[in-house]
Amino acid sequence: MSALYEANFPVPLGLRSLDSYFGSDGEPPPDSFVATRKRDGTAKSLYWHPVWDFTAYSVDGKPARLVFSFWAAGNITSRRDAISKEIRFLVFALIWYREGSPLAFGTLQNYLTVLCALAEMSDERGVSLATVLGDIRLLRKFVSVRCGGWMAETFVSLHGNLSKLPEAKLGFKLAKSKDAGQLGDGRKAYRERLRQHPPMPMRIYSRYISALSSELSDWLAVADEMLELVVQCSSDPLTGRTVETQSDIATRIGLEPSFARRPTFDQCASSRCLEYIASKGGSPDVKGLSSLISQAQLIAKLSVQTFTGTRDEEAKSLPYDCLDTSFHDGKTHYRVCGTTTKLHHGLGKRAKWVTNQEGLRAIEAARAIADVIYGLLEVQPKSSDDERHRHALFVSPGYLRLGSETLEPRDGWFTPGNLYFRHDSRLREVLFGVITQADIQELEHIDPHRAWSSEAKFQLNERWWFTTHQLRRSLALYAQRSGLVSLPSLRRQLQHITEEMSRYYAKGAFYSREFIVGSKHFGLEWQATQPESAGLSYIQNVLHARETQTGGHAHWVQHRLKRGDGVVAYDRKETMVRFKKGELAYRETILGGCTAVDGCDKAAMNWTGAECLKSFCKSLVCSLSKLELVTAAQEKFVSALDRKSVEYRTELADLEVMKAARTGIAQ
């Protein structure tokens, strides 16, 4: 029976959907059917093509293709051609026949990987792909021999979606979903092996932030001269090249040798540029120059991620016009505007992230590089909602024609560069130190049930193993007012971003709805991590306190939880669960900490906490070292007041309360 089928595929706002299909169930469309189109509406991929190009439907214009030729070696045969057509039809069915939530391109790409692996098995056995998918014995063989954890996981997901299609649409009988589901038993073990991305230990995190800021400063010190050098070498195919290369290029483009002579790279570059290139491990030539531009973009991108919490793809796909600045409450506030990932079937949604001065500095550095690249191409980045994502902030240096690869814009879209940290060994050594025993102990405090020392990535005296997702985890954990951060340098580095995130992301905050879009925005991760950060801080600063403490809650711990040997006995897991449920709370205060679940009910103006000391507040945890600092500050303040004033008598009374509490702790 013939029917009209609409494509079930996510398309960015402003772009036309994939073509509708009118045809019969279980039969492939005609070879002339248009599978994908270009942004201008003309046909790009027809059904019979061995590659379907979805680049026009990607948010950032990055290449996106589905390749149906599954064989790794050898020539195409009639059987391979037939199996390839089966793969193509199954992908077609997932887009045009399947109902429900649309599958993102990345999901289709993962499914295609599994289908190609199944196709290899079909080819080897001399049977059709439909035969393999309908025979549970062959599927068991496939999973046991060819599937790792990820492949088994993806296979079960693929099978589940194919099973939603009636047999009449598939054209064959699929193995029962119950039987196939059992093939994914390895999924549980696979998921268990997927560890949560660890936060960086505080010392390593603080060093990383300092070194990253220093790298950005080094670039900014020579950026004007380096970018001028880029303009010289990009504007002319001969300038900056060796004499031999100039001669070769002149011959190739038909230029007379007498007119071909241009300054070489050493003659074009200033001494400061050459010194910078040498210090960063670059080569003094146009390819080395292109590499250092990429390195500067990478440093800027990492800085943006560090002080926004964006994912790697979210940072890479930021548009040129991504910065929103506002001034209120006597301060300038910076917001980064871009597109989220992993939100709506792989289709990004507009979102904002707060950042600080360091994030601003990184964006301005990236913009200066982008200005040169777009300027050389005589392009003006657009700021309108429907065109702003055409122009990437971290636009690829491949458009400069300095390296071996030369890029051209696709339908007016400019792709970001391949800014992968793993490609830069020098930067890894600069940013990250080696792991110490103290770092391992800190990780064990965060997660004592994980055998950190037994994992190859966390060995003593080895350089810290880094992934960009650690930046989100570390920022979410440490940018809280919980008191978990004990390193003064890290406190200073995160102070302003902590203030901004508390203002914009806190539950119930006026701005939170404006910023937090979907279920994967960093603001939600920041909120979700608050009880974890508070719980870890409570365990560290209260239950494992190394100094004598006073206050209602401190005394409760000492009398209820301390054993005869002085060790505090508690159930760590239960403690963390209570924090997540909101039954326990802890926030850092000037005197130590407060465990009030419903917030403090003392006078807001009593910044010293003297009122809490005086009433021996049941939520108070006061440490001797902090009390001494506050007492010293209060003594200095009182000594400067007029002894005849009411203010003097009030502040003196608070000072006496502090002194009495200090004496009580010391005894």
Number of helices: 26
Largest sheet strand order: 10-13-12-11
> For this entry, what is the oligomeric state of its chains?
single chain
> What are the low-pLDDT stretches, counting only 5+ consecutive residues below 50?
none
Count every beta strand, where a strand is a DSSP E run of 2 or more residues.
13
Our count of domains comes out at 3
- Major sheet details: 4 strands, antiparallel
Mean pLDDT: 87
- Roughly how many Å apart are the termini? 91 Å
Q: Tell me the helix content.
A: 40-55%
Rg calculated over all Cα atoms: 31 Å
Query: β content, as a range?
Result: 5-15%
Any idea what the shape is?
globular
The SS-based structural class is alpha+beta
Write the layout of secondary structure elements.
Layout: E1 2-5, E2 21-24, E3 34-37, E4 43-46, E5 51-53, E6 65-67, H1 78-97, H2 105-125, H3 129-134, H4 136-146, H5 149-162, H6 167-170, H7 177-182, H8 186-193, H9 202-235, H10 243-253, H11 265-268, H12 271-279, H13 286-306, H14 312-316, E7 323-328, E8 331-339, E9 350-355, H15 357-376, H16 425-431, H17 437-446, H18 469-478, H19 488-505, H20 512-515, H21 522-543, E10 549-550, H22 552-560, H23 572-581, E11 587-588, E12 592-594, H24 610-615, E13 620-623, H25 624-639, H26 646-666
Antiparallel strand pairs: 1-2, 3-4, 5-6, 7-8, 8-9, 10-13, 11-12, 12-13
Helix pairs in contact: 1-2, 2-5, 5-8, 9-13, 9-15, 13-15, 18-21, 21-23, 25-26
List keywords for this structure.
3-stranded antiparallel sheet; 4-stranded antiparallel sheet; 49% helix; alpha+beta; 3 domains; 26 helices; 667 residues; single chain
